[in-house]
Design a protein that fits this description.
The complex is a heterodimer of chains A (358) and B (281). Chain A has helices spanning 43-51, 93-103, 108-122, 137-149, 167-184, 195-201, 219-224, 229-234, and strands at 4-13, 17-27, 32-36, 58-63, 66-67, 78-81, 155-159, 187-192, 204-209, 212-217, 241-249, 252-255, 258-261, 274-279, 284-286, 293-303, 307-314, 317-324, 334-339, 345-347. Chain A is an alpha+beta fold. In chain A, the strands form four sheets. Chain A has a six-stranded mixed beta sheet, with helices on both faces. Chain A has a five-stranded antiparallel beta sheet with strand order 13-12-11-14-20. Chain A has a five-stranded antiparallel beta sheet with strand order 15-19-16-17-18, with no helix packed on it. In chain A, α5 (167-184) links the parallel β7 and β8. Chain A starts with a strand and ends in an 11-residue tail after the last strand. Chain B contains 13 helices and no strands. In chain B, α10 (184-212) runs antiparallel to α13 (247-277). The longest helix of chain B has 32 residues, at 73-104. Chain B is globular and about 75 Å long. Chain B starts with 5 loop residues before the first helix and ends with a helix. In chain B, 33% of the residues are buried. Classes of the chains: A alpha+beta (358), B mainly alpha (281). Chain A: This is Sn-glycerol-3-phosphate import ATP-binding protein UgpC.
Chain lengths: 358, 281
């Protein structure tokens, strides 16, 4: 086993397009690291550079304590699961899993033992003789993981492995990947654009945008204390509401003339300067006119079953409130929202960085 | 679409049947002619049902030949077979390798190389016949199998077909085999080749028939009668000026000449069609 260390890794494509702009990141041995971001943010490129499928334009990639920049993918001791599974269509499931070991001149009985073991772990023993096209999406996904497991690599790389599955299967496979990673304890790097997958799977969550890392942390940290406005609106569904406001004084901001208290606020901000106020839809409570409250006009309601989303406007900006079904009558036209000072996030309108306590 | 117009349907079938008759009748006639003796055919009243000379005609043609050519057609068939197989196999080998290079390797002037191959499509044997003949003659390859085969095996069609097929193979497959420790050659042998089997079969059928039907090139470079191909053999049997053409032998030879391509098509038809239309990976 080994951790992975990235040191100012860059990728510059022909035509001077910089896809990855100097990413530094340490991934501890045995941890599950998820790279998440919108498409085109450089997360897949970064993964492919770790795998050795893309050349590294600058910086250094280390697996364990070996610098792997110049190594062939096969020599890096990694295994990769692809989005479209990339199973060899003409080989049986057994041969698909055994192929990498055969190329490494592993003895036949050892190959057999490892393939059988992986098949048992993944519950695909009964398909070993079949061809990939005779399998369903979920089964192919398992075979792709089996192919990774049998190699006993230092690092697993996952490139959006669940995006070709239907919603139900995705949830099921997500749990299985997590369980498997726990059981095997292999360092894993997982790329996805789905923030739910990212939150549920990761020990370490890396949010990327525009070829750079926006924030690294545990899922809870990233959710509770987003470092930039981008992270705040990307992680969490429905996304965080962002309202324009102004600084009133220490621990107080005003939104459209309504004053609210804030716990996590940087000291020394000039009163009267503009600020962005972030509130998660699930963090505001309907009703209750406390010291911090906002009034909201409601346009329409979305039913989600257990919860309802109230869409409307606060101080002229779009706002969403999530409430348990039945808590509010569906024909509510306006609301007073109680705001917990601990749940208010402040961002600099220019730099978009968090203006919390240092 | 559900339609029930009996008259239109009848006309459609009639047209189709007519087409089949037009194509099939000469073939049928040739087969029938190969079962009579010369006199019966010459007098112009050849019956359309099989005669009783089949065994005699076929054994004489295969092992002895006609009165004028005096070459056993069996040997001509062997020559044709060697040439057609050589051309088909050679074309497949060369084109699959060049397509592999053009698709999977990045080298300077890759595009140029591809376009040069593409342009050779416009230069069939007939256009470059003189220089080709000169080269083959200078190399001392007249009257050899090598001389018959070599100038015909470069194939732009094959390269294009394989290139199109390789481009449909997802890149991830190459990447997966890189991670599995397979180098370029192993990827070719273990993944590309097995996946190309149907394309290979399709190309084999086309090129075997192309090779078998070659007329101009063998006519030019073979002078010894022992190197003649069957297509030339037929020609020699019917262009005699001062004697009767042995139509029974000529027709028997024609039937024999049709046989191998027909067998190739019949046995490889399923793979052939799959190779040309397959999209599923």
């Amino acid at each position: 086993m080994a951790g992975v260390t990235l040191d100012t890794v860059r990728k510059i494509y022909a035509g001077n397009v910089e896809a990855v702009k100097g990413v530094s990141l340490g991934i501890e041995d045995g941890s599950f690291c998820v790279l998440v971001g919108p498409s085109g943010c450089g997360k897949s490129t970064l993964l492919r550079m770790i795998a050795g499928l893309e050349t590294i334009s600058g910086g250094e990639v280390k697996i364990g304590d070996r610098v792997v920049n110049q190594m062939e993918p096969a020599d890096r001791d990694i295994a990769m699961v692809f989005q479209n599974y990339a199973l060899y269509p003409h080989m049986s499931v057994y041969d698909n899993m055994a192929y990498g070991l055969k190329n490494r001149k592993t003895p036949k009985d050892e190959i057999d033992r490892r393939v059988k073991e992986a098949a048992r772990i993944l519950a695909i023993e009964s398909f070993l003789a079949r061809k990939p096209r005779q399998l369903s999406g979920g089964q192919r996904q398992r075979v792709a993981m089996g192919r990774a497991i049998v190699r006993k690599p230092q690092v697993f790389l996952f490139d959006e492995p669940l995006s070709n599955l239907d919603a139900k299967l995705r949830v099921q496979m997500r749990v299985e990947i997590k369980r498997l990673q726990r059981a095997l304890g292999v360092t894993s790097i997982y790329v996805t654009h789905d923030q739910v997958e990212a939150m549920t799977l990761s020990d370490k969550l890396v949010v990327m945008s525009g070829g750079q890392i926006e924030q690294v942390g545990s899922p809870a940290e990233v959710y509770r204390r987003p470092e930039t406005r981008f992270v705040a609106t990307f992680i969490g569904s429905p996304p965080m509401n962002i309202l324009p406001g102004t600084v009133e004084g220490p621990g107080r901001v005003s939104v459209g003339g309504q004053s609210i208290a804030v716990t996590d606020m940087r000291e020394g901000l000039t009163p009267g300067s503009a600020i962005e106020v972030g509130l998660r839809p699930e963090d505001v409570q309907a009703g209750g006119a406390g010291a911090s409250s906002l009034s909201m006009d409601i346009d329409f309601v979305e039913e989600l079953g257990a919860t309802q989303l109230f869409h409307g406007k606060v101080a002229g900006a779009e706002f969403i409130v999530q409430a348990s079904t039945g808590q509010l009558p569906a024909d509510t036209r306006n609301l007073t929202l109680a705001v917990d000072p601990g749940n208010v996030h402040l961002f600099d309108p220019q730099t978009t960085k968090r203006l919390g306590r240092v | 679409m559900v339609e029930n117009r009996p008259f239109a349907q009848f006309m459609a079938y009639l047209t189709l049947a007519l087409g089949v008759v037009i194509v099939a009748f000469p073939v049928y006639l040739a087969i029938m002619a190969s079962t009579f003796d010369t006199a019966t055919i010459i007098n112009g009243n050849m019956p359309l049902v099989p005669g009783d000379q089949a065994a005699e005609n076929y054994s004489r043609t295969l092992f002895y030949g006609g009165m004028h050519a005096r070459q056993p057609v069996g040997m001509m068939m062997l020559n044709s077979m060697v040439m057609a197989m050589g051309i088909a196999v050679g074309k497949i080998l060369i084109s699959i390798l060049s397509a592999f290079a053009v698709v999977y390797f990045k080298f300077p002037f890759r595009k140029t190389a591809f376009w040069i191959i593409f342009i050779t499509l416009m230069l069939p044997v007939e256009v470059r016949i003189y220089p080709t003949y000169k080269i083959v003659a200078d190399l001392g390859l007249l009257d050899t199998y090598t001389g018959l085969i070599l100038p015909l095996i470069a194939s732009a069609t094959g390269t294009l077909l394989f290139r199109q097929f390789f481009m449909t193979i997802p890149d991830e497959l190459l990447e997966a085999s890189k991670i599995d420790g397979a180098g370029a050659f192993r990827f070719f042998k273990d993944t590309l080749l097995p996946l190309s089997l149907t394309t290979v079969a399709a190309l084999f059928v086309i090129q075997f028939i192309y090779g078998w039907n070659q007329y101009l090139w063998p006519l030019l470079i073979t002078t010894k009668s022992s190197m003649q191909t069957i297509v030339i053999g037929i020609k020699m049997m019917i262009t005699t000026t001062d004697a009767l053409t042995e139509w029974n032998v000529a027709m028997t030879t024609a039937v024999l000449a049709m046989l191998p391509p027909v067998l190739v098509v019949i046995f490889m038809q399923r793979l052939f069609v799959k190779g040309l239309v397959e999209t599923e990976k």
